[in-house]
Structure formats: structure tokens, C-alpha cells
Amino acid sequence: FMESVNILRRLKEKAEKVLGCELKTACGAIPPKTGEKSAKMVANVIEETGMICTGIEDEPTAAAKFLRLVNGTVVDIGGGTSNIAVYQKGTLKGTCCLDIGGRLIKISDGKISYIFPKIQKLASDHGITITVGEKADQSKLYNVCCLMAEQLAKALYLLPADDEHKGLYTNDGSMLPKEPKVAALTYSGGV
Description:
By secondary structure, the protein is an alpha/beta fold. Helix content is 37%, strand content 25%. The radius of gyration is 19 Å and the shape is globular. The two termini are 21 Å apart.
């Protein structure tokens, strides 16, 4: 908690120097369907820095608002999850969250130091053997990234979903509604 507060304080100070004024309010963003506890935690971090929290949005909704997206889909790829939100005529039609992200395999000193269990299973189910401690093989890791990209395509109904895909959803495992069909995509993320 305090590490997050300190990071936000530093960011606030930098922004205030650039803008030349004090920041008094802020809103935050959380992954979709992570619940009231997550929202409260982010609000507490904001308020601990001395700002008033004016609202908490799920990450793809925050991105869509920032981009003024009316019709389209936001895919927010983070370190551990990808959050997707679909909009039609300015109305949120659905969100989902998958365990697909940029830090689900970690490499240290040229070796694999961590593999998220769902990603290890995904790789294994497709004949790709990766284990903690082995030398990071660029070809294998590229193939795993391709598998993760396919899972995002399945979430958008660009490829048919299967049981394996359904196991990659977080929380209650909700898929996006089939309508509206994806007409435009925008990507965001911190990784």
C-alpha cells in the first residue's frame, strides 16, 4: 500500500511541476470485475496523497473515456491480465479479463525465472515445453506469445473459442457478448 502511495506522490509532484499548479482531485482505474475492495484500495491510495478521489473506473472504460471512443473495442494489455471493453454508440456493452499479459513469464540472467501456471499449461497443451531454470529460448517464447495473441483473438470472436480458452478468464470467467461485432480496436497497456 505505502509503495503505491509513494509512487503516486512522486508522479503527482512531477505533474504539478509540469502543470504549475496543485493537483487536488484524481480518479483511478482498476481491472474489470475485480470488485469493490480493489476500487476502495485505489481510492485510499489517491486520498493518502492528499487528493480527493472523484471516481474509479475499470481500466478499459477509463481508456475509452480518455480516447472519447464511441464505437469500438479497447484491449488493455497489462503485466498479468488483458482487459477488454466493447462500446457501441457510447454505451459499454461488455467487459472481460483474461490471464494474458506481458509479465507471465519472467526472465533473469537469460534464464526463465517464473512461469504463470495457466501460461505453462497453455504452452504445454500446444507442445511447447518451458520450465523455470532453463535458458530462455527466443523461438519458444515467441510461439507462446503467438498463443496468447490467439487467445485475445478468441475473446474478440475473431477465432472460435474452446474449453482451453474459457479457462483463461479471471474472476467469474465472463466472456464478451457476441454482439456488437468488433469493428475497431484500440490497444493500451503499461507493459
